[in-house]
Amino acid sequence: MTRSRLAALLGVLFIVLFCLSGLTAQTTVKETTVSTEMTLPQLFFSLSSASILLIPLSIATIIVAIIALGMNRRNVGFLFATVSFIAFLLFIIFFSLEKANSALYNPLSDALKEAGVKFKKRDVDRIAVSWSPMVFAALASVGLTACACFPDFKSDRSRRELREDLLPYAYVGPHLFFFIIFFVTPAVYGIYASFTKWDLFNEPVFIGLENFKTLLFDSGNTYYKQLRNGLWNTIKFVIYSVPFCIALPLTVALALQSKCRGNKFYQALYYFPSLLSITTVTLSWRYMFNAQYGVVTKFLGSQQNWFAPPYSWIVLVVVTVWWCAGGNMVIYQSALASIPTDHYEAAAVDGAGAWQKFIHITIPGMKYPMTYTLVMSVVAQFNIYGQPLILTGFGNNEANAVLLMYIQENAVKKQVAGMSAAMAVILGLFIMVVSFLQMRVLRSNAPE
């Protein structure tokens, strides 16, 4: 058996041992000692401790290591197996140092109540954790995985191969780390939470598809109505705002292409709003549209309530486009600069006008940047939250309440986190479907 296959088997063994591992938690309150047992897979889904975030990092990296070893990429397998070992070791250390972890406090508090002990949470000073032998066996197996594919440093060729194999990961490694911790892990936890009944304080209780049944089929339920109203308002906002998020930056980029005097100043001026926080931007525009002393109201001489439909949609679109246009403008400027000037000169010789040049040269030359900005703009506007929350809130019979507002309201204020997670999953699936259809349509219409 080759070293790569042996290392891959040890990596698989780590996953198996992880599933079989567990711990025993113990605490003493008023001279009464209680204990509870919990498996690591149960702990993985407890959603209660920062150190638990190291578990998905360890699992994800060992899976990558196994795949790399299966492709006979031993150096890459060594790198990810080492990261997995370090992450799992740090999890054991940090979790053991936590004095009162809520994942362990809740079952221990139930045991204390069954024992007839009256107590408050502050009475639980310390929760002692003892790991099962399987935990250390899993740690040893992932360590042996790294050792089994340890690179060879004896020859110049092996050292050169090691450098060539691992150098790309030195660049993408930090991004990959944060991607797993702050994107993949919350996504996995969010999907799991959508199948539970959870109030953010106690442990989530798995209830299967009940949340989705309520949202999709129980027409008399409040959350059923919130999903439809929030999703429809979100779709309307996307339809209203995305065309302007594409057309306005493109127009500005074309204007700045003329290299007029003060070109760089105007470019910086148009890009500046993208650097501001959404709170700063929205509060500034809220002042400008104020019915009593707003600049826009005084300039137009109108007494309209800009924060009530249908004018509220105009305000939301104006604020969003002003805030987002700078990023797309920079992308379009870069794309325009990459189009050879020879094409425009040849078209001018053939008698083509400005509009014909734009349609037959500029647009085809920018098809990939425009595809990217269109998809990303749609995804970004589907995630609208700050603008309607600050400008209109849930007023006007929730006429401008978008789905993310309901998700935050239910999860944080009403503490119905499981239902909110189900709403978020539905929104995510909707965005994925829309983005997929966009890509298919744009690719089918793209010139060869």
Task: Give descriptors for this structure.
448 residues, mainly alpha, MetI-like fold, 2 domains, 3-stranded antiparallel sheet, two-stranded antiparallel sheet, 70% helix, 5% strand
Helix-strand pattern: HEEHHHHEHHEEHHHHHHHHHHHHH
Number of helices: 20
How many strands appear in the DSSP assignment? 5
The CATH class of the largest domain turns out to be Mainly Alpha
User: How are the strands ordered across the major sheet?
Assistant: 2-1-3
Main pleated sheet: 3 strands, antiparallel
Beta strand %: 5-15%
Mean pLDDT: 86
CATH architecture verdict of the largest domain: Orthogonal Bundle
The overall number of domains is 2
Write out the CATH superfamily name of the largest domain: MetI-like
Contiguous low-pLDDT stretches (5 residues minimum) are none
Helix content: over 70%
Q: What is the CA-CA span between the terminal residues?
A: 49 Å
| Gyration radius from CA atoms, angstroms | 28 Å
User: Structural class, please?
Assistant: mainly alpha
CATH topology of the largest domain: the name is: MetI-like fold
Structural summary, described in words:
The protein has 20 helices and 5 strands. It is mainly α and 448 residues long. It folds into 2 domains: 3-193, no CATH class; 212-445, MetI-like (MetI-like fold). A 3-stranded antiparallel beta sheet has the order 2-1-3. A two-stranded antiparallel ribbon has the order 4-5. It is flat and about 85 Å long. 30% of the residues are buried.
